[in-house]
């Protein structure tokens, strides 16, 4: 099981404004490569980041880390059958940054 700690994202609103706190799995001070995540890791990541209800969509669609890294904005907005607001936040604040991190770490 991955260790979770708080990571503050200045682009995220607080819960009083309708958004969620941001938490990320951290190993040795860095996020682990999502390409190595199983379905349960993806589900646990989204539960830990405040998307408890939406995390089940990733389970239902059997989205593992490799699949997560291949997802487009349209996949998240329409393919997971979740409400638009949470889907936008999931893509912009989580999926896209995880994809960027993966590309940077594999470019070196």
- Helix and strand sequence: EEHHHHH
- CATH T-level topology of the domain at 32-105: DNA polymerase, domain 1
Strand content: 5-15%
> What is Rg?
13 Å
- Total beta-strand segments: 2
Q: Which consecutive residue ranges, at least 5 long each, have pLDDT under 50?
A: 3-24
The end-to-end distance, rounded to whole angstroms, is 27 Å
Overall average residue pLDDT: 81
Helix count, per DSSP? 5
The chain-level structural class is mainly alpha
The shape, in one word, is globular
CATH structural class of the domain at 32-105 = Mainly Alpha
Q: Quick one: CATH superfamily of the domain at 32-105?
A: Transcription Factor, Ets-1
Helix content: 40-55%
Task: Offer a quick outline of the entry.
By secondary structure, the chain is mostly helical. It is built from five helices and two strands; from the N terminus they run E-E-H-H-H-H-H.
What structural keywords apply?
mainly alpha, SAM domain-containing protein, single chain, disordered N terminus, SAM, DNA polymerase, domain 1, chromatin binding, PcG_chromatin_remod_factors, histone binding, 108 residues
Structure description:
It is a single chain. By secondary structure, the protein is mainly α. The protein has a domain at 32-105: DNA polymerase, domain 1, CATH 1.10.150. The protein has helices at 39-48, 52-60, 65-70, 73-79, 84-107; strands at residues 4-6, 23-25. Strands 1-2 form a two-stranded antiparallel sheet. The longest helix is centred in the C-terminal third of the chain and has 24 residues, at 84-107.
